[in-house]
């Protein structure tokens, strides 16, 4: 029997609707959209051919809800709504970020009512982020990370901390040694996360009229090991491995030139996996949709197999606490007001610049 699901929120919630209707229609039934009744909500319901519920009492019997609305401490009703569902014995998958105070409350209500709650961890399920995490975890079995560079902004800071929690032995202790503000569009933090030195380049700017745009990047990570550097160039890839160069002294003797060690035959940089650059449309409407679908399926399996919730709750609470700590350290984002539409240089022009004259 198909699981019955309602999506709450018509902005990012549309990605959940697409995932349910296009990728998961054989196992899940999207029974409708819950929203305030705005013009966008009405148009979404009409476009996707689903009922629009503007009152909580209108929602029919369902198995779980996808709450894609900001949580309470960041100005939304997501926490209140999630708890309202769980008080009615309905499981909840909620979009991040969620403040630790809200997360503590939702897990408390979930435990009291014997239902499941989980935040949607979209970014770690994107193909190249998942590859980066997987390779880092394997490298960590052989050698300790010596240093980490992380770059991200407020809009994607919660998943950035989630990614760090998966590639570091511990993120429990954060020691801040120095912060430099307004280095161009970035604030720079140096310190230690656990016992690993870290530098964070934080694109601490936001356009209040268009909060989802004008960031200079989503995520960029580099882990330095004794043997080389593992790099996630961007949220959408590629993942790079750059071996550390070492030239043995004996090679400076002419008679030894033919005794080349194997590691000197390694490429100076490797692109890992079957990476192929994608356009933004593909990333937004294919990769994100698939990542959300994977979250929904994972959540459904948790419910079916009665997975113990405590370990997940502890990990998510730790991530939320570190996210709150890091964003508090950097403080409020600087407000920017770019004039006009964002300009871009077509890649064909960039290729021209690269050609030899």
Count of spatially separate domains: 2
Overall outline: globular
Q: Give the full name of the CATH homologous superfamily of the largest domain.
A: Dihydrodipicolinate Reductase, domain 2
Helix-residue proportion: 25-40%
Spatial arrangement of strands, main beta sheet = 8-9-10-7-12-13-14-15
DSSP, total strands: 16
Beta-strand residue percentage: 15-25%
List the total number of helices.
9
How are helices and strands ordered from N to C? EHEHEEHEHEHEHEEEEEEEEHHEH
Mean of pLDDT: 92
Alpha-carbon distance between the two ends: 65 Å
Structural class of the secondary structure composition? alpha/beta
Q: Would you tell me which CATH topology of the largest domain applies?
A: Dihydrodipicolinate Reductase, domain 2
What would the keywords be for this entry?
Dihydrodipicolinate Reductase, domain 2, single chain, 357 residues, 16 strands, globular, Rossmann fold, 35% helix, 22% strand, 2 domains, 6-stranded parallel beta sheet, alpha/beta
Write a structural description:
By secondary structure, this protein is α/β, with parallel strands linked by helices. It has two domains: 118 residues, NAD(P)-binding Rossmann-like Domain (Rossmann fold); 153 residues, Dihydrodipicolinate Reductase, domain 2 (2-Layer Sandwich). It is built from nine helices and 16 strands. Strands 8-9-10-7-12-13-14-15 form an eight-stranded mixed β-sheet, covered by helices on one side. The chain has a six-stranded parallel β-sheet with strand order 3-2-1-4-5-6, with helices on both faces. Strands 11-16 form a two-stranded parallel sheet. Helix 3 packs parallel to helix 4. The mean pLDDT is 92.
């Amino acid at each position: 029997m198909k699981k019955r699901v309602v999506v709450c929120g018509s902005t990012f919630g549309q990605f959940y609707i697409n995932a349910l209707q296009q990728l998961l229609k054989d196992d899940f039934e999207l029974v409708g959209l819950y929203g305030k009744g705005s013009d966008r909500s009405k148009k979404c319901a009409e476009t996707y051919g689903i009922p629009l519920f503007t009152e909580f009492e209108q929602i029919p019997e369902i198995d779980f809800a996808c709450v894609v609305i900001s949580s309470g401490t960041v100005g939304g009703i997501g926490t209140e709504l999630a708890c309202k569902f769980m008080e009615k014995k309905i499981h909840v998958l909620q979009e991040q970020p969620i403040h630790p105070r809200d997360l503590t409350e939702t897990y408390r209500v979930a435990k009291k009512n014997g239902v499941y709650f989980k935040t949607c961890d979209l970014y770690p399920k994107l193909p190249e982020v998942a590859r980066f995490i997987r390779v880092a975890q394997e490298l960590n079995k052989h050698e300790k990370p010596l240093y980490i560079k992380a770059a991200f902004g407020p809009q994607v800071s919660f998943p950035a901390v989630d990614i760090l929690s998966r590639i570091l032995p511990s993120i429990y202790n954060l020691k801040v040694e120095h912060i430099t503000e307004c280095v161009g569009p970035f604030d720079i933090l140096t310190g230690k996360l656990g016992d690993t030195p870290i530098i964070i380049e934080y694109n601490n700017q936001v356009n209040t009229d268009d909060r989802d745009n004008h960031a200079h990047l989503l995520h960029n990570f580099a882990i330095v090991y004794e043997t080389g550097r593992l790099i996630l160039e961007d949220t959408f890839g590629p993942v790079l491995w750059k071996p550390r160069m070492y030239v043995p002294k004996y090679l400076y003797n002419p008679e030894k030139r033919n005794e080349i060690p194997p590691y000197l035959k390694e490429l100076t940089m490797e692109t890992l996996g079957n990476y192929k650059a994608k356009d933004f449309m593909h990333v937004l409407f294919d990769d994100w949709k698939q990542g959300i679908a994977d979250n929904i399926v994972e959540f459904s399996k948790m419910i079916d197999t009665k997975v113990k919730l405590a370990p997940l709750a502890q990990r998510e609470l730790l991530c939320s606490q570190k996210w709150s700590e890091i964003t508090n350290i950097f403080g409020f984002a600087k407000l920017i007001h770019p004039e006009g539409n964002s300009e871009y240089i077509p890649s064909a022009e960039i290729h021209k610049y690269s050609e030899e004259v």
